[in-house]
Amino acid sequence: MERPLELGNMTRVGEFVLLGLSARPDVRDVLFAVFLSLYLATLLENTLIIYLVCAHGELHRPMYFFLGNLSCLEVSYLSVTMPSLLAGLWAGPFLVPFVACMTQLFFFVSLICTECTLLASMAYDRYAAICHPLHYPLLMRPGVCLGLALSSWLGGLLVSVVKTSCIATLSYCGPNVLNHFFCDVSPLLSLSCTHVALTELVDFVSAIVIFWGSLLVALASYVAIGRAVLRMPSAGARRKAFSTCASHLVVVGIFYSATLFIYARPSRIKALDLNKVLSVIYTVATPMCNPVIYCLRNKEVQAALQRTLRRSRG
Fold first, then answer.
1. For 56, which of 8, 47, 156, 195 is 20 to 30 Å away at the CA?
2. Would you give the distance in Å from CA 3 to the centre of its chain?
3. Do residues 15 and 3 touch, judged by C-beta distance below 8 A?
4. Domain limits of the chain?
5. What fold characterizes domain 13-313?
């Protein structure tokens, strides 16, 4: 199926075979229709959020600034993984050149690291709004918001450069079959025929810094929010705060549970089919649900959407 490249006494894989989400043709047809519909719906949802945040002045506030960044991230994130998922469902296992695989890996790692730190920034924003309302305009002034967003995007790029460089310099001598629907870290490391201790160390350190670090920030923020809400004298204010934070906490919980199970569990635990299912959760389901949970249930966003629809009809 693929001719390896000769490297002295060793061969190097020049292409990988992605097995895709399912090997059954009858199941693939149904899944293709489902995931294509989800892809288009998610693109529409997130593009709408980006437009509303940019077009309506009343949404030019820190919370919506971060939500706009999150929607940009979700559009990019989905567009990195979904084309290969759809290609595998449409045609079955297919070849991916080595360079294309590493490119997909680079953007995927960058975006998933960015999402971790961006979710932590959003949790801190809610902490500042609920626990320190009088100081909120100072704590979340435009320069701080921009700095948090830029650090999320640039931090993800930096981590991805290091991780992808380490993985790309490994030797892959065959087999060249990836039991996944996109080029991910764990399946690639399992195919390497060289010593991967340094790469695994880089992967472990980045998981500690990015995943666990951002998770602890998010959890600390929500614990402080919970304490502040319980001390509120008004039952109506408590319900409003809990309803907002509960939806945020659901998204954070789903995302971190799936990613941490895959990337932070012991490497000896191998469950490739389970990995693919969990990958669908945070690469497809989370980007689709985020706009609904964060924005489209929000009264201010609903009001902005209604004004936009009235203008388009008029």
1. 156
2. 34
3. no
4. 13-313
5. Rhopdopsin 7-helix transmembrane proteins (1.20.1070)
